[in-house]
Amino acid sequence: MRRARRRAFTLIELLVVVAIIAVLVGLLLPAVQKTREAAARTACTNNMKQIGIAMHNHHGTRGAFPTRSGTGPWLEQLRAYFEEDIAPDNHVLKILQCPTHPNAGRLYGTSYALTFYVALAERPNYTTAANDTAVINTRTRGVTVAEIGDGASNTAAVGERGPSPDLFWGWWGFPALLDTNMPVYSTPVYYTTSGTTAGSPPCPVPAVFGRASATDRCAFNAVNSPHPGGGNFVFADGHVGFLPFTVTRLLPDGSKSVLEALVSRSGGEQAVPE
Fold this sequence. Notes:
Blueprint: H1 11-62, H2 74-78, E1 107-108, E2 112-113, E3 117-121, E4 156-160, H3 177-180, E5 181-183, E6 185-186, E7 207-208, E8 210-211, E9 224-225, E10 230-235, E11 240-244, H4 258-263
Parallel strand pairs: 3-5, 8-9
Antiparallel strand pairs: 1-2, 3-4, 4-10, 6-7, 10-11
């Protein structure tokens, strides 16, 4: 009785199978990456919603939003209103981390934890322009909802911004304005070149809302986002909106960008994001 001979794969058939698997993997990986980013962006959005709730709980208790400085960083003032346990400054607070950013969850050395969310201003003159900030002001008393003439739902208060690549700037518990506050349009910049080595490309001036980076120092000069296409913003009424990078375009009268208009609290501009 003759046994049937098993037919082995030829080299060509094996190569075809390998090629098919490679194509399938190539199609699958982007889908997996998109799913991961969607989950991370959702977590980031939820964190910012909690910040918005904490701001309004502060307002309900103290009669105003937290101040930009004076009694400590605005995030320090909100700590009692976070659902997360109160922790020392060297503790990584999950609510202040954007999971999409490659530096999320890290410390500077062993001493300072980072924040990926900052209070917003139109331009760097924090202490001179009464209308320069959205919600968090430099006065002893913070701004009230009634003082937001453009409407709380039309005024952006908090945005995304990753720390500097060396993690030296961006500590949530540090009182310096630079660490927890950021203008959306800045002509004086903190870094003039993208890196520390000779020949590093110069940073663009003015610095405006753009893509985050864990290596390019220029990204730290303004608000930035690690999400594709744009970033999350907390508005003064507590809702979180996703704004595209194109909000850096100028208003029809050329006076300022759409994002600046959204950050001003009583500018009277009719800024409608795309």
